[in-house]
Amino acid sequence: MHTLLNKNDRVLALSNILIAYFAFLIGTLMGLLQVFIRNDKLQLPAWLDYYQILTAHGVLLALVFTTYFIFGFLQTGMSKSLGSFGKKTLLFSWIGFIVMTLGTTLATVMIVLGEASVLYTFYAPLMASPWYYVGLALFVVGTWISSFALIGHYVAWKKQNKGKLSPLFAFMTVSTIILWIIACLGVVATVLFQFIPWAFGLVDTINVELSRSLFWYFGHPLVYFWLLPAYMAWYVVVPKIIGGKVFSDSLARLSFILFILFSIPVGFHHQLVEPGIPAFWKFLQTVLTFMVIIPSLMTAFSMFATFEITGRQNGAKGLFGWFRKLPWHDIRFTSIFIAMFFFIPGGAGGIINASFQLNEVIHNTLWVVGHFHITVGTPVAMTFFGLTFWLIPYLTGRKLTKSMQRLGFAQVITWSIGMLLMSTSQHILGLLGAPRRTAYSGYMDHPSALEWFNGILSNHVTMAIGGTILFLSAMLLIFFVIQALFILPKATTEEEFVEFPMAESDIENTPKFLENWWLWIGVAFVLIIVAYYIPLSDIIHNAPPGSKGFKTW
Ligand code: HAS
């Protein structure tokens, strides 16, 4: 029997998803402009700057779209698996939403005014308007308030269910939130104690190396804050759609705990070329980086096992017979499967990046841009699209019609083609030395730069074609979102109602200590202290003179 979520919970989740897709719309448009500028085919008007649109693209897609969508998804899943939100949870979730939205608006206005073209990494000594940093701080505080609202809901459930392990979805939500809160400590520290006083003129200079290190303390776990909700869909939603169960409840929980432990003390792998950090600490954090690959390999194993076991239950024979038994006609599955497939080269690229000598070749080149488009831009984003196809109809009580499912296939296929073209050419261009974060790709017809316009895949033109297909695909998705929010007919019969697919898991075999949060938070802090205490103290105590701010745009 289908039951709709409580109306208050639905409105909350839908509001988050609405803002996510508004940011997605503008962010993808900014992406389209960029590939044309890099291709030397577009001259921007004097009042618009390449770095301004690059900042808007990064902030709106990587930070705003992802975070709002993640909260919409987590809120829906928590209400579904632990029961409707109480008054306090709702109140705090709304306060969090409002603070996040104020922060987003302030930061976006500063970008639009041309006062904050510092990219989403806002590296010092580039200096934006102080209000941009205030906007970022509000955004993070808003996410914390919304996070604590969800934790409160979980704690209330635990009180009523003493001694029981929480459902897998709730466990994974709490893990993701713990990771997020610990990760944000770095960015909050640098924004509050370095950037805001510096940008308001209260101090003259900034310790650049410290600000970057604190940013990357946050920046790497940030990518897992994007990835974990996608993994939640892979572990919990996909098995249900294919008619199976979670392969192993304990394996799934353990992989999330490993992310809490190992995703934070690894930020130096983004700074391998920076001279201010001694080699030993880079080495240590690189070793820890290889540890954080393990939970992703566990996830890959678990997915293959789920596919195979379910396929065999449905009569599959031979080594790969299960492959044909998967529900390819179901957009909710196919979209996420393709997302998983993209993560094989995406993850392999990450391992390359983390290898010191290879990092020397690819750092600051278009390769890195290619890498993040086949990690966050496809495995994560396309999983979110796959969720969108049923999540919005589930929340609005509308039908997922056949024509909308076909539209979903068109969207996912075009996104895959666009991404294959764009990201493959970005990887190859990167290997040929094409830098990232530059408006300019001609270099006065230098022979090396001319190479970037030859060849089929190693070409800025191919990148632009891929980017254009991606933009068209994004517009298909926006059309779907508008339909699913406001236009599709309401479901009336049991078959028409769209459900939240949540698979069963063998919770009875799961050891209780896996839900001992204080233990894991404690171990995480020990690792963070080991990896960061000495190098950060060194960066603070032996700092060269700080830098004044620069506005290069
Ligand atoms: Fe990364 C740079 C290392 C994962 C995002 N990364 C970035 C940046 C972003 C980003 C945004 O070490 C740029 C930041 C900037 O602006 O400067 N990354 C890694 C490593 C991993 C990794 C080791 N990255 C991600 C994920 C991201 C992401 C996930 C977003 C969501 N990354 C780096 C490094 C840099 C970097 C350096 C700095 C580069 C530089 O110098 O600037 C690992 O977590 C990857 C592990 C993953 C795997 C894959 C497992 C495969 C699975 C799929 C199973 C498939 C199935 C389907 C079941 C080992 C789980 C099968 C189907 C069939 C048909 C076969």
From TrEMBL:
One Pfam family linked to the record: COX1
PROSITE patterns assigned to the protein according to its UniProt record, in alphabetical order: COX1, COX1_CUB
Annotated localization: Membrane
Major location (coarse): membrane
Gene3D superfamilies documented for this protein: Cytochrome c oxidase-like, subunit I domain
Keywords: Electron transport, Heme, Iron, Membrane, Metal-binding, Respiratory chain, Transmembrane, Transmembrane helix, Transport
Membrane-spanning parts: 12-37, 49-71, 91-113, 133-156, 168-196, 216-238, 250-268, 288-310, 331-352, 372-395, 407-429, 461-488, 517-534
InterPro entries reported in the protein's UniProt record: Ba3-like_Oxidase_I, Cyt_c_oxase-like_su1_dom, Cyt_c_oxase-like_su1_sf, Cyt_C_Oxase_1, Cyt_c_Oxase_su1_BS
Domain Cytochrome oxidase subunit I profile: 1-514
Presence of keyword Transmembrane helix: yes
UniProt membrane topology term: Multi-pass membrane protein
Similarity comment text for this entry: Belongs to the heme-copper respiratory oxidase family.
Protein name: B(O/a)3-type cytochrome-c oxidase subunit 1
Species whose genome carries this gene: Bacillus suaedaesalsae
